[in-house]
Amino acid sequence: MASLAATYHTQGRYDAAETLKKRALNLRREVVGEKHPDTIRSMAELAVTYHAQGRYDEDEEISVKVLDLRREVVGEKHPDTISSMASLAATYHAQGRYDEAEVLHNTALDLRRHILGEDHPHTTQSTMYLASTRESLQQMRSYGRSVPSSAVAQDRNSEEPKLRHRFFRELAQAMSFGKGRSHGS
């Protein structure tokens, strides 16, 4: 079920993916419990689908829970926890909450450098995401301290955050391909 949901997600069939991901999550909660790594992964995958749909508030709600659970279950320095930080930072970025995104991206980058090394594709990805967030912060500050809420709302509904995410993901994959490494989230 989870594999079919992932296929639907890859195909852009987000409604079908969401339905299956919710079913898989509910089954995992029932069978292995809320704190099992498979259940937490199912939660994270549902959040990714919400993000792809532009449903950032729902994505955030789940992503915060996923990060909290992973910190509790596997610890702050586990690669899954670090990925959860990066995912939540991407959500904050998409919501126009650049200060919060910067803090999480910076933490994820520091941990990835320490745990995975400077040349790991995930470290490179974190570097790019942090640069993107800092660029957005700089642009926001160049407009002045207050950005009209309509501008943030317009940015949330635009394709730009999705395109930027895809660009950085593909760039990181291309960089890792050249080094003979596989890429994960």
Number of domains: 2
Count of DSSP strands? 0
Global mean pLDDT? 84
Low-confidence stretches: 146-151, 175-185
Tell me the Rg in angstroms. 17 Å
The SSE string, one letter per element, is: HHHHHHHHH
Count every helix, treating DSSP H or I runs of 4 or more residues as helices: 9
Note the gap between the termini.
20 Å
Largest sheet: none
Please bin the fraction of helical residues: over 70%
Our estimate of the beta-strand percent is under 5%
Structural class: mainly alpha
What coarse outline follows from CA principal-axis ratios? globular
Structure description:
There is one protein chain. The chain has 185 residues and is an all-alpha fold. It has 2 domains: 1-75, Serine Threonine Protein Phosphatase 5, Tetratricopeptide repeat (Alpha Horseshoe), CATH 1.25.40.10; 96-185. 79% of the residues lie in helices and 0% in strands. The chain has 9 helices and no strands. The longest helix has 22 residues, at 121-142. The radius of gyration is 17 Å and the shape is globular. Mean pLDDT is 84; it is low at 146-151 and 175-185.
